[in-house]
Specification:
There is one protein chain. By secondary structure, the chain is α/β, with parallel strands linked by helices. A seven-stranded parallel beta sheet has the order 3-2-1-4-5-6-7, sandwiched between helices. Helix 4 links the parallel strand 4 and strand 5. Helix 3 packs parallel to helix 4 and helix 4 runs parallel beside helix 5.
Length: 247
């Protein structure tokens, strides 16, 4: 099922900043209408919408607020987007919480927040997309950490492991009308408050010896969009980090 970019609509969670914003700009440049989800980044979402409308005046760009930790707000998202934008052809589950904490440091509330935003919300959005839209493409953002058992980000890593398993399960159940795939970034952007030197230091221990930046993610997304026979697959955009550390 090849998705043409003509008059198609993408809905991206966490689209106001960082990776989500870059994806929104990338798809808009290819002719997509874009639904921009945000939770606390209202100013950034509005500025992105204005930028997109100015650059691509013939396309539709709308913003949607929802706290992905709140099940009721998540359940309302897909119906809202369909009502405002008439359809969704591409759902990108990009938003996530990335908080440090090993198993012994993880209290119940912390675990719930990580699992709710990183796993439960995508689960609900995939389910509702299948019910309301019935055909199209879903891309889930996981993490290269899913291949190891390091516990320094225990709840986060477990939530992304669960999302990858969901990707495969959904691809099997929802095909052929809906394709479901995943992208696993590695050293893409430095955490807020840290500079590029932080990523370069970490990159010294991976095969490619450098951070990847955003371009590999966009190339991987394009590959998924263009490959009509690809479903239930994971593309690692991590410079070989999933293979193990070299030092």
């Amino acid at each position: 099922m090849l998705i043409s970019n003509r008059s198609k609509t993408a809905f991206i969670t966490g689209a106001a900043k960082r990776v989500g914003k870059t994806i929104a700009l990338h798809l808009a440049a290819q002719g997509w209408n874009v639904g921009i989800h945000y939770n606390s980044s209202a100013t950034e979402a509005q500025l992105l919408r204005e930028e997109l409308k100015s650059s691509f005046p013939l396309q539709q760009f709308e913003i949607f607020k929802a706290n992905l930790n709140n099940a009721n707000e998540v359940e309302n998202l897909i119906p809202q987007v369909v009502q405002v934008m008439q359809n969704i052809d591409l759902l990108i589950n990009n938003a996530s919480l990335f908080d440090r904490g090993n198993l012994l440091q993880t209290d119940t509330n912390f675990l719930d927040r990580q699992m709710n935003v990183n796993f439960r919300a995508p689960f609900m959005l995939i389910r509702d997309f299948a019910h309301r839209v019935k055909k199209g493409l879903i891309v889930n953002f996981v993490d290269t950490r899913i291949v190891n058992n390091k516990s320094n980000f225990a709840a986060y890593s477990l939530s992304k492991k669960a999302l990858w398993e969901l990707t495969k399960m959904a691809a099997l159940e929802l095909g052929p009308a809906i394709r479901v795939n995943a992208i696993a970034p590695g050293l893409t952007l430095a955490p807020e408050g840290k500079g590029d030197d932080y990523l370069w230091k970490l990159a010294d221990n991976i095969a490619m010896k450098r951070p990847g930046g955003l371009h590999p993610i966009l190339k991987s997304l394009d590959y998924i969009l263009d490959n009509e026979y690809l479903t239930g697959q994971l593309l690692f955009c991590d410079g070989g980090e999933n293979l193990g550390l070299t030092n």
